[in-house]
Fold each of these.
Amino acid sequence: MSDRRTAILEAAATVIARRGVRGLRVEELAEEAGVSKALIYYHFDDRAGLLRRTLAFVNNRAERYTAEQEAADPPAGPLRRLEQALLLELQDLPHVRENSTAWGELRASAVFETELRSELALASVIWIREVADQLGEVRPTAPESALAASAERLTALLEGLSARWLCGILPLPDARTAMREGIAVEVAHLARRAAEPSTEDTPSRANLD
Amino acid sequence: MSDRRTAILEAAATVIARRGVRGLRVEELAEEAGVSKALIYYHFDDRAGLLRRTLAFVNNRAERYTAEQEAADPPAGPLRRLEQALLLELQDLPHVRENSTAWGELRASAVFETELRSELALASVIWIREVADQLGEVRPTAPESALAASAERLTALLEGLSARWLCGILPLPDARTAMREGIAVEVAHLARRAAEPSTEDTPSRANLD
DNA sequence: GTCTATACTCCGATAGAC
DNA sequence: GTCTATCGGAGTATAGAC
């Protein structure tokens, strides 16, 4: 992968975070990357191809950030590690906000551009499994299915909160608090699931009506 | 409000659900509504104004649907009522899908179009309070702050799951299951909050590390 | 691989008649 | 209030030189 190519992808993430997928203009991207418009069409067939590659790039970068953070600030215990991983996306650092915004944009546009779906689905599965694994380290006796379900909910919650934060209707501290409490609630739930293995996949329903 | 105006707004929701806010072309909208392009600019100042009005329209319509559903299928008890309200958005009926898609699109585009934010924030606050109230009827002894926090999480979870469903990476039945379990988990959490009033705003943290 | 210059399409917005 | 006709700008993509 050439330097130029990477520079274009980095710039694409920046411009998408600034203007959205719909607001991305090849000309503005060219300026941001310090290259000509034509070079973008040379490296990526067209606009759609560019978006696909950008999505992959953003996903990779998010993985790198997670690894970097864990190295820089080693979490004390599995619960802290899980919190760190999930709260990582809710930070007002330039590159984090950029990544979150670009990811949200690309996912939103996938509702209408089918080409992005497979890339998106893959990243989603990996991310959910990662969270499920970390939940498993916090609650080793909880059943796999319960871990997977909790991970699904926690990652969906994160995306919902992130969307609200990014569109300005939920202050960042509130989003972080909501996420932290959401983790605590799910972890407590898993503790009960582990303690009462008799409760089947529909957890604690009978006693709620 | 004239018939034409309403017809345009209805058509706008339809076209947005079909092509996205990004894909909305005033010409296609005119065709869908059976009017001329110029009439759209007559009734709504510009594209941005049209989007603002469409957001308000979609919100109103969602409220109407909720009321209609409650009348048509009276829920048995407060928990069922809550479930019905939250699961309403996760249904593959044309008008529901249209509403959800349009709402998701408009929220996503609000990241870059500041004008939509106030309308969006207002609808969000109302919706969260509504859910908090219904949670309060399920768990009358739970503190207000806990109800509000649970409502925030549940509505964010709904939006996260809905986004995944609409962009095709999460099958609808899975989304519905996740939502139902999410409700159960939060309701169980509120039961503990009511039972142990000593536990402060950071729920069950101390015993988790 | 990278640039400059340009072709051509599409679309938002307005003018002006009825 | 509603239409037809049109303008002007913005934006994607390509041609062709280096």
Amino acid sequence: MKRLRLCPNIITFNTLITALVKYPSTHSLFLCNELFNDALKLGLCPTTITINILIKGYCLAYKYKDANQLLDRMSEFGCVPDNVSYNTILDGLCEKGRLNEVRDLLLDMKGKGLMPNRNTYNILVHGYCKIGWLKDAAQIVELMTQNNTLPDVWTYNMLIGGLCNEGRIDDAIRIRDEMVGLKLLPDVKTYNTLINGCLDNKRSSEAFDLLEEMNQKGIKCNEITYNTLIKGYCKEGKMDKAREVLQKMEESGLCPDCVSYNTLISAYCKAGNLPEVLRIMKRIGEKGLKMDNFSLNTLLHILCQERKLDEAYELLSVAPTRGYLVDAVSYGTLITGYFRCADTEKALKLWDEMEEREVIPTIVTYNIIIGGLCKSGKTQQAIAKLNELLEKGIVPDEITYNTIIHGYCWEGNIEKAFQFHNKMVENSFKPDVYTCNILLRGLSREGMLEKAIKLFNTWIDKGKTTDVVTYNTLITALCKDQRLDDALGLVAEMEEKNIQRDKYTHNAIVGALTDAGRLKEAEEFMTDRERPSEQRLQMDDREHELRVDELDSSSIAYSQQIDELCAEGRYKDAMLIYAQVTQRGIDLQKSTYFTLIKGLIKRRKSISKTG
DNA sequence: ATAGGGTTAG
């Protein structure tokens, strides 16, 4: 256009940057900035919409600082921020759980005379639901009603999502019924949320009932419904069923997307089925889809799992040059990997690198670093990180508190563990079954069995839930203290409560019975151990798992050939050989699969090269 | 041409 001496108007420009901003990558923001400066030079006057689009771009790339700066500089360009400008940033901050900044920005907004509208309220409801503050979410709904901004389907859907996340499916369904009474009709998103909630809480038959129900009501399934079902099957290890859903999705005229494929990739990664991972990644490319952050992070995860930390770090380093957005999940994955390999130093170094790159950590990232520090015996540094996240207005979750309590117990500081526990209960901490188990274990380890039993009884009296770990912890401690009959009493209690015993229960009891010379009982207990629920969940595709000893010589030769081609950067040729190998049904060496997979990740074209 | 809900990764 410029070459033709045509001057784009502001609408053309806005359209252009909207497209760029929609798919955030390393280059798109940079390009947007360049274009923006270019537009200014051409004498174009940006409008509030222009700036709002740019703000959205920064938010999508998690650059909230830049977004805020742009907001402050709007007057320089002769425009004023509106509700959209604020809502965009508010939503981004809610997404990351940065509640302090949310509060500050809301105040700033009101100071400018802008009143929160329905979108603003819904953003806040969403933010609270995400961190499980359902009471606060309900308060916002109350506020909406007071301000004559009645909650809509969006509001209700988010409340339903919040309840599902807390496992409160029945309450969620009740709210759904409430909607119908208010003439707010549940839509496909309501159903997707509920179906997802059921599947996550092991209530899959209800999930399928809901699916049936939405069909009857004429609400059409969409990609997300199918992706949710795929995830459900993947979680149960039913890969064949997951593939069936993918098939059905295509038959119904819907296109599997990145989410569908990433879900499968992640499941196959967990099953160690690298050939399948590679096959799907290849498929993504053939379909004209691009691998995204999720694909990248999944690969980083499996590299870390295989303890290939150097390779993972290399991938993390080159990813931005390939257009991928390296984010808090990418860093969290590697930091977890380093801690697992007991390389605390590198883990901490990576945390610093993350901060230097202005990648914003979430509560999960903080939980990782806090857990790692605790495990390395640096509980004080862990506490420092806790204070740091609190200062940022990030809300800790149960995992954060449990990790620190565990840390104190780990270093044998039971007293501090309880002090911390009590102090946090005064705040917002709701101890869960993990908390109970951690404290029981800590007390037992320090030989304070009586206190453990007391804690256990109080816990039960409060009507709190227990699990097999709770019982195992006490049973093991009782056995060690030669209180075998008390331990057997707990086994009976488990039976009553329908808590299935596992190999830990078994080992403790059989060992103690044997030591006590009660061999007959030990034998009885042993024959009793094969219970249906104890049988391991089998992946459908476990037989495909690579086994080094099954590789024949041709496989090794092919693997070598492919490795060499990849080392020369000749991925295309390597993929050709790979195609031949697959046709002949030969498996490659594990590391060769990794090499090819990394090749596919690296091949992602960046926007700057195509554009 | 701009803002809010449901699916995938640590």
